């Protein structure tokens, strides 16, 4: 009986370890090469996305704009030196019982020089149960941007409220 329980526990442990997907992020360098990565409001951040369309470019736009950038979509084949900050953005949408982010690659260029890269692949796991289709694509893209642009926190919803904390509304 003990052997059966140990075997079941080991199987569950192996199944749980296979839940991870592959994700790799090299953050944008904030060193001497790039004097100040914190953009002034309105700094242009251009994005070159999949040539056949991109289901999640709106999620990237929202994440970039929350960090104070002005977002501009460029046509496929545009130069990465077109804007002070430019990113190539390639994603793949997959669907099982609902749509999810199958893979994403974001490469950021600052003044035409490669400065950072984020890569995510939901299908590249160590086997076992893969729960990546439960993660909303917008949350995964926000996570990748947060890791790619460290320290460029999204603006708070209460910014400019005079320093007073916002009080949540009472339920109706």
TrEMBL record:
<feature type="signal peptide">
    <location>
        <begin position="1"/>
        <end position="22"/>
    </location>
</feature>
<keyword id="KW-0732">Signal</keyword>
<keyword id="KW-0449">Lipoprotein</keyword>
<protein>
    <submittedName>
        <fullName>Sbal_3080 family lipoprotein</fullName>
    </submittedName>
</protein>
